[in-house]
């Protein structure tokens, strides 16, 4: 029985002589497709498609930083379309989140110009995702993100369906209570390693997106080192001025709401009977503009990669080495 490792269980260890002369020469970019012709990201970081994260303002700032914004699915279709056309009018590319019961909506957004979709489901290792993936795949020049999966079997399943990028991690997010409520899920580091192993074994071109458990910039560095191609973040962006939601004042301090996509409030918002929830709800301290957070991510990754003798993300994976910080039974 192998240990289940999370980011807090490991620490990166430099074991290669670094030849990085300047942190500014490090290449943090990521090509979203295997041919390098679609949406090159300046930073290998994506926002979680949560209703307290993804706003029009967030999409704008991310785009200005060479990143991709997302329009979440927890709002009326007309508002989603309005947000998309507003951003499209400014020439900004975004990813549209869709559920399994939104096949006609997929066609509507495609006719508006959408080419990148995220099939936003809790369990991507299920036959119910196939019709939605096939519908998007049958449209020309589309890009599909799907998940979540937590095993090599799940990763291979979505890869075989032609998913371009696969979200890895179940129960790892700070607002996700899946592991508590269901007993399902392993440590995110172990999930990444297992899925990376099968990705290389079968020669999959699907990107591996580490999703959940990011508390600090160092965790992003750990995820990329142990095998993720990109990292999806929620809490890191929560509480910023651009995150969706109102600013709250409590005991003299400013806060913003932050909640999981399977939380009571989100399910109620969607008109569903929230008799069973797998998401938490909280408030986080107000952080100001998100640009400061993005700058911290950029600086932290460059510093980590200079220690790890990596001039780019592929070298980071190749040179990656870590120790377990305490005994894991």
Structural account:
It is a single chain. The protein has 329 residues and is of the alpha/beta class. It has a single domain (34-246, 289-314), classed as Alpha-Beta Barrel (TIM Barrel). The protein is built from eleven helices and 15 strands. Strand 6, helix 3 and strand 7 form a beta-alpha-beta unit. Helix 5 crosses helix 7 (188-202) and helix 8 (217-226) crosses helix 10 (290-307).
List descriptors.
single chain, 329 residues, alpha/beta, eight-stranded parallel beta sheet, three-stranded antiparallel beta sheet, globular
What is shown here, in short?
This protein has 329 residues and is of the alpha/beta class. It has helices spanning 56-64, 77-89, 103-112, 130-138, 152-160, 178-182, 188-202, 217-226, 264-269, 290-307, 313-319; strands spanning 10-12, 30-31, 40-41, 45-47, 69-71, 94-98, 116-120, 143-149, 165-168, 207-211, 230-233, 247-250, 253-259, 281-285, 322-324.
CATH-derived topology = TIM Barrel
Helix fraction? Answer: 25-40%
Residues in β-strands, percent: 15-25%
Largest pleated sheet: 8 strands, parallel
What spatial order of strands do you see in the largest sheet? 4-11-10-9-8-7-6-5
Can you name the CATH architecture?
Answer: Alpha-Beta Barrel
CATH C-level category: Alpha Beta
What is the end-to-end distance?
Answer: 9 Å
Instruction: Supply the number of structural domains.
Output: 1
The secondary structure category is alpha/beta
Determine the mean pLDDT. 90
Order of helices and strands: EEEEHEHEHEHEHEHHEHEEEHEHHE
Write the layout of secondary structure elements.
Elements: E1 10-12, E2 30-31, E3 40-41, E4 45-47, H1 56-64, E5 69-71, H2 77-89, E6 94-98, H3 103-112, E7 116-120, H4 130-138, E8 143-149, H5 152-160, E9 165-168, H6 178-182, H7 188-202, E10 207-211, H8 217-226, E11 230-233, E12 247-250, E13 253-259, H9 264-269, E14 281-285, H10 290-307, H11 313-319, E15 322-324
Parallel strand pairs: 4-11, 5-6, 6-7, 7-8, 8-9, 9-10, 10-11
Antiparallel strand pairs: 1-15, 2-3, 12-13, 13-14
Helix pairs in contact: 5-7, 8-10
């Amino acid at each position: 029985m192998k240990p289940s490792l999370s980011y807090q269980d490991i620490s990166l260890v430099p074991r290669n002589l670094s030849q990085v002369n300047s942190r500014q020469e490090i290449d943090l970019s990521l090509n979203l497709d295997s041919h390098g012709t679609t949406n090159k990201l300046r930073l290998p970081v994506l926002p979680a498609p949560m209703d307290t994260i993804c706003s029009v303002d967030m999409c704008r700032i991310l785009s200005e930083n060479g990143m991709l914004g997302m329009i979440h699915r927890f709002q009326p279709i007309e508002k989603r379309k309005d947000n998309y056309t507003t951003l499209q009018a400014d020439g900004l590319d975004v990813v549209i989140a869709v559920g399994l019961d939104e096949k006609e909506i997929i066609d509507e957004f495609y006719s508006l110009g959408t080419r990148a979709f995220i099939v936003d489901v809790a369990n991507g290792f299920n036959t119910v995702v196939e019709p939605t993936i096939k519908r998007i795949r049958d449209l020309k020049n589309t890009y599909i993100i799907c998940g979540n999966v937590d095993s090599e079997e799940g990763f291979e399943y979505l890869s075989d369906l032609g998913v371009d990028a696969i979200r890895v991690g179940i129960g790892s997010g700070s607002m996700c209570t899946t592991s508590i409520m269901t007993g399902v899920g392993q440590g995110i580091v172990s999930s990444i390693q297992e899925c990376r192993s099968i990705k290389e074994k079968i020669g999959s071109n699907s990107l591996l997106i580490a999703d959940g458990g990011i508390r600090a910039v160092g965790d992003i560095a750990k995820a990329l080192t142990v095998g993720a191609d990109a990292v999806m973040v929620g809490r890191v962006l929560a509480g910023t001025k651009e995150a969706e939601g109102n600013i709250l004042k409590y005991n003299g301090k400013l806060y913003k709401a932050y909640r999981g996509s399977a939380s009571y409030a989100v399910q109620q918002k969607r008109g569903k009977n929230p008799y069973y929830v797998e998401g938490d709800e909280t408030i986080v301290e107000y952080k100001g503009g998100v640009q400061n957070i993005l700058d911290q991510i950029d600086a932290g990754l460059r510093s980590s990669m200079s220690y790890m003798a990596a001039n780019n993300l592929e070298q980071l994976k190749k040179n990656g080495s870590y120790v377990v910080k305490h005994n894991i039974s």
